[in-house]
Predict the structure.
Amino acid sequence: MMIFQSASQEKKDKVAEIILSSVTAVELMQGKILGYFSLGLLQVGVWIALVTPFALWKLDDIPVLEYLFVPETLLLLVIAILGYLLFAALFVGLGATIEDASTSGNFQGLVMMLPFIPFFLVAPIFSNPSGIIAQIATYIPFTSPAVMLMRLAVLDEWPWVEILIGLAILIVSIWIFMKLAGKIFQVGILIYGKNATPQEIWKWLRA
């Protein structure tokens, strides 16, 4: 969401041309994604540094560090990072199509709701993490990161075939969305006057 607001704010303040006089549109888009990614990692690192000593003190009978530093944690981090990259590409492209976020249309509003879809699946996933709903949601890019994290948190035996398929779909989706977001961002960041319609975005992608 910070990436989305950054792109739309630059359009609103009419500073995109100044920035693009020094870097290309693709470099600006990649800089936003990597910059906010680094900021997020720094924030999480600070939280962990502050919370871990308190957890070790209050939960002295629970091996907190042994639970944290296990091989499975690395996979969970990879899934979380891939999820970030997917929505970062989507939102940075979307932000470039909006002149004013307060007047964004139904199309932009629907797209911004995509990260919240997994919240509607919490009950069926936790009640049956190996069920058909959980399996299908694992293969859908917009729900895959959150659903896989929820499933792996409660399953005793991880379904590695489903995990690998889900990761492969997610990686391919990220590559596609990065390409599409680059095209949208390159055109949309310099278009002023109104929020772009789905038809206009489709023309930019075909151009």
In short: The chain is about 70% helix and 0% strand.
